[in-house]
Amino acid sequence: MHRGQCAYLGKGLWSKRLTEPALEPRELPALDVVLLSHLHGDHFDRVARAQLSRTPPVLTTRQGAQRLTDWGFDAHGLDTWAGETLTRGDETLSIEAMPAIHARGAMAALLPPVIGFLVEHQIGGAVRRRVYVSGDTLTGDHVNDIARRHHDIDLAVLHLGGTRVLFHTVTMDGKQGVDFLERLRPREAVPVHYDDYGVFRSPLSDFMDRVSAAGLGTVVRRVARGETLQLG
Question: What CATH number is associated with residue 153?
């Protein structure tokens, strides 16, 4: 999607893109796997459908996998806490679906189910890195469940933005993002998903101000659009 185009969010809801993407799907390097928290237009749009290779497996919700399979993708639907393992030589990538809550109350029935991901990379049986990807979620007790199972997360990728749909917040704003970090306690965190669409109501500056006030400034790493982050 390019700036000015609209992404379909389901149930007759659309949102205009405000920024240009860092890369087109066809410009990506060869991928081993695609992680998709849910099938919404701001995560998987018509450009991705047209350009993304059908070769790598796509791990997502069961609902999303059904539609992606119809489109010719090698889609695998995961329930919460279920996972898959990819192997190449002496390297393994274990991917586990994490609980996520896109909305509460009446709005929950209008939005599709979502999952996050815990990715563990091993070489020769030794764990090298554990990366958590939140997907679109609110904070809450489910984050405590994740922390109890995985208390040694190296990096958390947090979807923020404070998305507002029909007067409901359906992704974390700055306040929720800090609460999420305090529950999860990763070694480092990278904020994403906060300025691309008109439905985003909580700017990154709000999150960063709250991060600083909570004494978490050394935990959060900002990554500019198009920038590459070196893990570890």
Answer: 3.60.15.10
